Amino acid sequence: MTSTVLPLTGAPSARFETWESVNWPLVEKQVKRLQTRIAKANREGRHGKAKALQWLLTHSFYGKLIAVKRVTSNAGAKTPGVDGVLWNTPGQKMEATKILKRRGYRPQPLRRIYIPKSNGKKRPLGIPAMSCRGLQALHMLALQPIAESISDRNSYGFRPKRSCADAIEQCFNIFSRKHSAGFVLEGDIKSCFDKICHKWLLEHIPTDKVILKKWLECGFIDKGTLFPTTEGTPQGGIISPTLLNLTLRGLEEKIASVTSSSDKVHLVVYADDFVVSGSSKELLEEKVKPVIEEFLKERGLTLSDEKTTITSIDKGFDFLGFNVRKYNGKLLIKPSKKNVCTFLNGIRGIIKTNPTCKTETLIYILNPKIRGWANYYRHVVSKETFSKVDHEIFLATWNWAKRRHPNHGKRWTWRKYFPDPRSVGNLAVKVPIGSKSAGLLSLVRASTIPIRRHTKIRMDANPFDPEYNSYFERRDLEKQRRDPLDDMPIFFNLYVLGHNFVALERLEPCAGKLACTVLR
User: Fold this and answer.
1) Does residue 506 come out as left (phi exceeding 0), alpha (psi in the -120 to 50 range) or beta?
2) Does the pLDDT of residue 418 top 60, yes or no?
3) Cα–Cα distance between 9 and 30 in angstroms, integer?
4) C-beta separation of 275 from 206 below 8 A
5) Which of 196, 216, 219 is nearest to 207 (CA)?
6) Antiparallel, parallel or unpaired: β 122-127 and 110-116
7) Which of 158, 79, 73 is nearest to 113 (CA)?
8) Which candidate, 155, 137, 87, places its Cα nearest to that of 238?
9) Considering only CA atoms, which of 263, 274, 264, 266 is closest in space to residue 301?
10) pLDDT tens-digit profile of 272-285?
């Protein structure tokens, strides 16, 4: 590896010549060190110092490397902006670090696309150009330490080390006890990303105001026509979720200022969805909801009348794809019926659109989807749902197999497509590995995913605070011990081959390619 060491302000930096030669552990360590200093300065009230450190990070070579890596390794890396430019090759990625500059920066308009919503409407997305995405990722590195230090304790959406499972576990803590709150306000903010007030963002977001203003006012191109953006932040922008979290910061404190502990009011927020518990329907209707509406109005936002309701916990409510409900005083959290139906319809659609593909190809397509869906719900009461889902998938694959061979009997079809003796009724196929061995590749069954209770993150835990370093290390080690394959970017299945071999199926979800390795 060829590198030249150049002394930079704050810390030494190695200038790597090629993308392949980058020492990523070193780069991530140095960027994390600078982020920790930003968070510390903000906690101590030294806002000038924090601003200076933010400037240092957004102009650092290491920060630009992390930013380029982030925008070229996420799910949208192959989606271009209006200029059609992508950063695919190592050379293009290295050159990209040289164009992430504040001086002379002019943002490209957003590329407007529409994706379907569950209610039949279309959701508008604004896709920034790669250069804009890279600069957003760079400035988010500097903004995130402050955002994590000042965000609400029970906000879980799009924050490092937090997840939907933490939000659902907090719902369990709120409603599971005998004398817990009996009512819940299900809140949804109408067109949240598209309606945030620009003036409020520029006055309250602790980041480079000049760059932020350029992003907010860059406009969008829809069907060849340029339209101005006078409000909102694009849903396709990397920094937009962090801006949303900072916009909703203070809602928890605002609600607490008008209620008491006897009201049993608790807030759980995930992006633009939130739930508020309360001891009575009148309390939520007359005291809590007006405060929320006033809070949102200052930021140019309003509640959605269609989706904002007040419900008894005995009737239950859906949140983040889960159904939270008490049955005779016992709280059970299950996958919501709507989400189960959506998942099964997607699986059936894949099977119907691949009537003539090879059996192993269909298994490679379905396995990551089944495993990912089951893993999302493995922390709640899902075993019965998993069994029902397995049965529905069996019916779909059985009908798929019968349609392929209308001139053969059911017994012949069964022996050909369901030969796995370990799992009766599970689609499987024999895959040759090498010249003398053969393995059995089976469809994943959701019911084989073990149900394990999720340990919720501490409300005050901050990944940029050294005080919590040991806490997050223990948490990561515990997760690896319980779920050793979770953090791997590939999917695995183990199969016995005769008496001496084990086949390791490896499916790369991005490339969609299969690789098999034989282990002795």
Assistant:
1) beta
2) yes
3) 12
4) no
5) 216
6) antiparallel
7) 79
8) 137
9) 274
10) 899 999 999 999 99
